[in-house]
Amino acid sequence: MTAMMRPDGELSIARYLKEPQVGPTAARIVLGAQLRRLRTGAGISREDAGKAIRGSHAKITRLERGQVGFKRQDLVDLLTLYHVLAPERRDDYFELADQANSAGWWHEYSDVLEDWFELHLGLEEAAALIRTYQVQFLPGLLQTEEYAQAVTRIGYPNAPQEKVDRLVALRMERQKLLTRTDAPRLWAVVDEAVLRRPFGGTEVMVAQLQHLLKAVQMPNVTLQIAPFSVGANAAAGAPFSILRFAEPELPDKVYLEQLTSALYLDKQESVDQYTAVMDRLCTEANTPQETADFLHRLIDQLG
Predict the structure, then answer these.
(1) For site-directed labelling of 170, which of 114, 115, 145, 217 has its Cα 20 to 30 A away?
(2) Which H or E run includes 280?
(3) What pLDDT shows up at residue 250?
(4) Does 228 lie in the same domain as 144?
(5) Are 53 and 198 in a shared domain?
């Protein structure tokens, strides 16, 4: 999707309305970025904009970064302050705000969903390309239900089975992303050690490996194994993901998942560093065909 610029330099947000890949998270970021462009174009400080909506400069910052939803009256006041007065233009902003404030499909899992992971789901939903490097578990988008049960239980050893089942159901729902009409490309590099750990037992692991062989037949899925023979790899054992978006208002984001939280990096310098690491990993790892051959051999060994 290519956004259009108005003669005055304003991005035509009408292009984002009702696009299937622009979920609420992406819509918030797009709308926030456009409000920032309007504010700076009008020569208005964050402090003055905050006063106009009975808030502070910090509230404006959160709105412009797409970190919070939009109240109708706040949007009305900001558009007026920024001299966006034409009804048809204002209506586009109101419609995008409604989209930004809507609940994503993951809302029904709010009883088990961590706040920090909710943002990742929204970004994942909007991504055009997902590159990920994993050293402990297989990517969630490629896990079987049984494998997901085993690794989720490791992360929640004392949780009731009902919660584990809900978390696994959430993961299975996420995977529909890969088969939708406008599916993103998933490019995963996985350390060999991940495949040597038979989470759930041998039978579960064999089924998981067979599932990977089917997954890599999809045109939008690429899997590479980083074998032990590579030695010290470029990432020094730290897992990470890079999400890239078709929308020009959405910068690439690096996702670093931790035990009880996550970091999201979007400064260009950080993104460039992680992209360089990912590129080196892809160069060092087995090719997709070598990876498929490796999976076949491992299945034979386990069988």
Answers:
(1) 217
(2) helix 268-284
(3) 80
(4) yes
(5) no
The pLDDT value given to residue 273 = 95
Q: What is the pLDDT of residues 14-38, one digit of tens each?
A: 666 766 556 888 888 889 989 999 9
SS3 86: coil
User: What 3 state SS string does 44-104 have?
Assistant: CCHHHHHHHCCCCHHHHHHHHCCCCCCCHHHHHHHHHHCCCCCHHHHHHHHHHHHHHHCCC
Q: Does residue 95 sit in the same domain as residue 183?
A: no
- The C-alpha atoms of residue 47 and residue 39 are separated, in whole angstroms, by 11
Contact 39, 46 (CB under 8 A): yes
pLDDT band at 192 (very low <50, low <70, confident <90, very high): very high
How far is residue 280 from each of residues 118, 195, 232, measured CA to CA in Å? 30, 21, 12
* Structural domain harbouring 210: 111-302
- Check residue 9 and give its pLDDT: 41
Any domain includes 281: yes
Starting at the edge strand found earlier in the chain, the sheet holding 127-134 runs 221-226, 185-191, 127-134, 240-245, 253-257, 262-265
> Which tokens go with 181?
């009409």
Question: Higher pLDDT residue, 246 or 76?
Answer: 76
- According to DSSP, residue 286 is labeled P
Do 156 and 246 share a structural domain? yes
Whether residue 219 sits in one domain with residue 80? no
Report if residue 6 sits inside a domain.
no
**pLDDT score at 13:** 67
pTM for the model stands at 0.83
Strands (E), 20-116: none
CB contact set of 54 (below 8 Å; sequence gap of 6+): none
204, two tokens: 């579960």
